[in-house]
């Protein structure tokens, strides 16, 4: 293993906290740490900086490194960051590769998810993510998490607000990696509509909730159909998927 391999692996273990195995705070995983659940991102950790699990973090690491090694131009962004772990991983990889140009954009309301608007997005009717205050992590806490890894600097850019307000202002910007973790139809579609055109040919788009949340899958399928996107969707685990934008 190279030094970058070792650093990436250590970041993933620290971000997911498989090192200390903190207890979950969700109501379904039994209140005890499970290596299997944490690997698959099936619990909500009490201390870890990401809930997406080892396999999705490894996927993000692999695709980010491919984009850097192949010279795919553009910044990196995640929409829906919780405690910031996935963005911390991307910023750490930029540092490991000595990349001094790209930015990592951290987009979130930093106040949980929005209430559904079923009159405009019927697929979100009945969605209750906005009621889970465990998902509301403040901007200051996320910034402190970056600082704990020594990775808070001017190359990390924070976008605070609902995606429908913040992401349209990013149109025209170039991306090499786009990771969407918005759960809902509206939030997922906001990311696709406002960011996909800026994704460089050869760049990667990652969808966190495709397998777990039907509304998210519907948004992705509707967008791909409307754009005639035929790039093969690759599964990461039980819910995460990605594809590469063609030339």
Offer a few descriptive terms.
single chain, 7 strands, 8 helices, globular
Can you tell me the residue ranges where pLDDT is under 50 for at least 5 consecutive residues?
none
End-to-end separation in angstroms reads 32 Å
Q: What is the ordering of alpha helices and beta strands?
A: HHHEHEHEHEHEHEE
The Rg value, from CA coordinates, equals 17 Å
Structural class: alpha/beta
Number of helices: 8
Mean pLDDT: 97
Strand content: 5-15%
Given the C-alpha coordinates, what overall shape results? Answer: globular
Overall helicity:
25-40%
Strand count, sense and closure of the main sheet? Answer: 7 strands, mixed
Largest sheet, spatial ordering of strands? 3-2-1-4-5-7-6
- Strand segment count: 7
């Amino acid at each position: 293993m190279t030094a970058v391999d070792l650093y990436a692996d250590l970041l993933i273990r620290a971000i997911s906290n498989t090192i200390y195995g903190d207890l979950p705070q969700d109501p379904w995983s039994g209140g005890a740490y499970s290596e299997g659940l944490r690997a698959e991102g099936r619990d909500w950790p009490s201390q870890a900086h990401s809930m997406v699990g080892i396999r999705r973090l490894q996927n993000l690491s692999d695709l980010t490194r491919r984009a850097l090694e192949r010279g795919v131009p553009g910044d990196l962004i995640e929409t829906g960051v919780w405690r910031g772990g996935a963005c911390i991983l991307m910023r750490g990889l930029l540092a490991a590769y000595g990349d001094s140009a790209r930015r990592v954009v951290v987009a979130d309301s930093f106040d949980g998810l929005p209430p559904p608007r079923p009159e405009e997005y019927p697929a979100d009717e009945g969605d209750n993510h906005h009621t889970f205050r465990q998902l509301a992590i403040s901007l200051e806490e996320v910034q402190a998490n970056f600082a704990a890894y020594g990775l808070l600097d001017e190359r990390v850019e924070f976008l605070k607000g609902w995606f429908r307000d913040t992401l349209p202002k990013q149109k025209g910007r170039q991306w090499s990696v786009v990771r969407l973790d918005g759960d809902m139809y509206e939030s997922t579609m906001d990311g696709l509509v406002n960011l996909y055109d800026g994704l460089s040919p050869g760049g990667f788009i990652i969808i966190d909730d495709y397998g777990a949340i039907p509304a998210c899958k519907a948004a992705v399928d509707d967008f791909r159909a409307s754009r005639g996107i035929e790039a093969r969707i690759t599964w990461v685990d039980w819910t995460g998927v990605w594809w590469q934008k063609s030339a």
